[in-house]
Amino acid sequence: MTEGLKIYTAADVATLINHRDGEIKIGQQVQFVASLEDLKNATSRFVLLGIPEDIGVLANHGIGGTATAWQPSLKSLLNVQSNAFLKGQELLLLGHFEIAAPEDTSTQSLQEKVKQIDELVAPVIAKITAAGKIPIVIGGGHNNAYPIIRGVSTAKNTAIDVINIDAHADLRAPQGRHSGNGFSYAIKDGFLKNYVIFGLHQSYNNDAMITEIAKNDDIHALFFDDLIQSNQPLEFYWRKLFKDVNGTPGLEIDLDCITDMLSSAMTPSGFSLNEIRKLVLTSPYNFSYLHICEGAVELTDGRTSSTTAKAISYLITDFIKSQQ
């Protein structure tokens, strides 16, 4: 298996599209390119790509399965109606990264593999951004936040701000790459400036992370536990967050923040899908990228979900509509 980006053609996804007389699906109108160099000539503003891997999750001692989200989510998205609210031509389908799982499943080997994934992903994100496009990435583990932030930052030649809707801060020590320390590495390496986390769960972030959040003026957090005790609507706090970011921040959505969404850290207590949709649709800023991660259609422990793919599809279409 040759690792790297597989660039799609229309023929690669033709069998995923369900045709019906009198309807036009997004998949019938999405754009394609033959090479990354062609991105700058494409008229689509948004570029979709997948990182179907769960190596970063396994390196963080989580339950595998995030590699299963890409293909079903792509099929769901391609079969959304292209209509007055969202035209298929607004999206360019680039492809997905082909990544082989290491035969050695020791923690050290998995962490080394995550570093290799970083090197595959970051240059592609940089080229998308340099072409004036907005990357939309379906993961994969949250480890991929690091190469995405790095790629956008490299293209812009400046550290960027990021808003992360997540139950976890993913600020574990930058000692071996995995899904729990992508933001730690992005801060350490100078690619991430202001880091804003919306919906942290008090009991599922270790004391070292809580201390780091409290002492670092560039990290801003709103805890889910406080949000559910407030009489104010979520949008009130969501809009307040934007005073802590500049320019066009990146947007991260870890699906384990949504109640009963299948993921390695699946939770019975979290945001509803409609609440996250509303936050995306009412965002007062444009974003430099969207990264949807940690969701799964099937986990390695046997649990499955028939709704994860459609949920991801909703979030992507909401994001595109909100960026007009």
Describe this entry's structure for a reader.
It is a single chain. The chain is an alpha/beta fold. It has one domain (4-322): 3-Layer(aba) Sandwich (Arginase, Chain A), CATH 3.40.800.10. It is built from eleven helices and nine strands. Helix 3 crosses helix 11 (308-322). It is globular and about 55 Å long. The chain starts with a strand and ends with a helix. The mean pLDDT is 96.
- The 3D shape can be described as globular
- Compute the separation of the termini in Å: 39 Å
- Total domain units: 1
Please state roughly what percent of the residues sit in beta strands, choosing from under 5%, 5-15%, 15-25%, 25-35%, 35-45% or over 45%: 15-25%
Based on helices, strands and strand pairing, what is the structural class?
Answer: alpha/beta
Strand order of the largest sheet: 1-3-2-4-9-8-5-6-7
Query: Would you list the SSEs in sequence order as H and E?
Result: EHEHHEHEHEHEHEHHEHEH
Number of strands: 9
Helix content: 25-40%
H/I helix tally: 11
CATH homologous superfamily label: Ureohydrolase domain
CATH class: Alpha Beta
> What summary fits the major beta sheet?
9 strands, mixed
